[in-house]
Amino acid sequence: MPDLHFEPDQRLWLLCTPSTSYAIRLDENDDVRHVHWGAPLTPAQARELGARTPPAGSSFDTAGGAEEIAVEGGARFGAAGLQVRFADGTRGVEWHYAGHDIDGGHLSIHLDDRHYPLRVTLHYRVHDDGDVIERWTTLENRSSAELIAVQRSDSAAWTLPVAGRRVSHLVGGWNSEFQLRQAEVPTAETVFTSRRGMTSHHANPWLALDDGTATEEHGDVWSTALAWSGSWRITLQRDPRGRTTWTGGYGHEGLTWSLAPGESLETPVFAGLFTTGGFGAASRSWHEHVRRHVLTHPGEPRPVLYNSWEATGFDVDEPGQTALAARAARLGVELFVVDDGWFGERVSDHAGLGDWTPNPDRFPNGLRPLSAEVHRLGMQFGLWVEPEMVNPDSDLYREHPDWVLHMAHRSRTEMRQQLVLNLARPDTAAWAHAWLDRLVAENDIDFLKWDANRPMTEAGWPGHPDPDRVWIEQTRAVYQILDRLRADHPRLRIEACSGGGGRADLGVVARTDQVWTSDNTDPVDRIGIQHGFSQLFPAQVMGAWVTDSPNVATARRTPLRFRFHVAMAGALGIGGDLAKWTEDELKEATGLIATYKRIRPAVQHGTAYRLAGDGTLTAVGYRYEDQFVVLAWCPSRPFGHQPGPLRLTALDPGASYRDQDTGAVHSGAVLLRSGLPLALPDGDHASVLVHLVRIGS
């Protein structure tokens, strides 16, 4: 049972996870103040810390320490996470403590405005099997008649107990997602954000903070992640005294939505964790949290899939897909996915999006015969869809031009020749769910690749009394459709995609089974993309494909073995044109897929350790039961340079380990101290897989 304490004399709460403690208190004005986030505390130690009141620096600063919800009003000058305006024009809040509830590991602290009918509840949830603390906020208009204008409602504010000197975050773009960056935290406000209506390729709502000395395996790290798939903003502030705080939630600048009488607004979860084990331990804690408390089917192996996109593009028909399916089955593929081009007048990306019925010229008897054949071959059947978008050149748009996001007297910006459907409208959302439900049921579909290939623009709702609400309701509608589909079709599995990795966060992962990490399948680029992705997400949700050489995005030529070894670090997929693969390539691929299935339990369900060797040599090790699997890659090296042995971690120094492929036996102590010799091929783009099994102590 999670450990929560309340000290009524000091009005202090202590939340304890297996390895950390989190303490907060009410001050004399009923503001909820941060006390501690870090190493475990006893209740007595928490009381001692809670009695301290950080002094003000001058008359231009306030005393009392950082607040748990950064509000507007009074002598507060930092970034406000809660901004409201009441019916008479008054802004800001003054709190009155209205009690708290403890239900297992869930603490709810209720705060009422002293004059206006606003109740805010701060939520905290801890688990007895991990150190992640989940936080969110609920706003309730307790008036019977008056609206409350909400201009910002963040999920939580976090406070670093030490001077935050370095921030780790993820940046990128299409085809270059999840690039890990580390920078000094300036004495200023730094904003991390997406204003695109989705998580975005360009930034991710995950941060890690440290004092500048943490490494992969050592040092104190504080990390947070927002579970939201729409626009978001996190504001990080370091003041001149070194105090570092950050506040985050959905939405972005300039939006206002109305909270009606009796209505509540619940923000997404903004989760955080602390570890003394460096960035690697932080990642492993996130991975376990995702498996235990986010994913709906964490114990299932993700199947080896084949996707037809790079083989056919929009030239999709039943004979061609049937032939590809037969080749894929012979390789050992377990899931066959038909990509874009199967529906309406979809012969390019200029038309047909929104007309979700099979093209009669390409599939004269619909999709059912292909689905049946794929199942006969022993594979599951999957399909690409893009339910949130529409081409103006479509029957749907011609019939319902008002169903898209738009503003009166403004142009409708097309990106990729498409517009965004307003799924916040009940009629549009009902239509989207109905055709998806019918498609899955009538064609015995096992898997959907759910794509979204453009951001939101002209995000308006003409005629609606509260049009800015669409920025929140659009994402909620996507969540609701996903939730309904999964409830009605329990064996359906879904991959989240947004032009690659444009929608990857804890909110969408709670409703899908894996994420398409990037449209860039170049294995050299993928090493960096996957490294960044692994900071938060476990390998089992990371879609990773083997495609053709030269690569379609970069024109880089790489060996098939190297492409496989990089993709085998996640949920393996094949995306090349199998009709053009040689017999030798098909034979090699068949063997590598069989090897992947052997190591899949370790990769998808094991504990991951990022490893670094000489030069460009990097690797990931997966510890699972008595196994330790190493995937190592060396993209380039000087002539004559052979990287030295790769030092491993998380092994038993008193045990021995046998290489399952060579039969060599290694001492655990030697592997930890002196490393594992790697039989890397000569030249660039070299890689190796080593599968070690413990054989005794």
UniProtKB/TrEMBL annotation:
GO terms for biological process: carbohydrate catabolic process. Substrate binds at W174, D339, D340, R416, K449, W450, D451, A452, N453, C497, D519. It comes from the Bacteria. Its EC number is 3.2.1.22. The active site is at D451, D519. One of its GO terms (molecular function) is alpha-galactosidase activity. Keywords: Glycosidase, Hydrolase. PROSITE patterns: ALPHA_GALACTOSIDASE. Pfam families: Glyco_hydro_36C, Glyco_hydro_36N, Melibiase. Residues 625-692 form the Glycosyl hydrolase family 36 C-terminal domain. Residues 31-260 form the Glycosyl hydrolase family 36 N-terminal domain. It catalyses: Hydrolysis of terminal, non-reducing alpha-D-galactose residues in alpha-D-galactosides, including galactose oligosaccharides, galactomannans and galactolipids. Belongs to the glycosyl hydrolase. This is Alpha-galactosidase. The lineage of its organism: Bacteria, Bacillati, Actinomycetota, Actinomycetes, Micromonosporales.
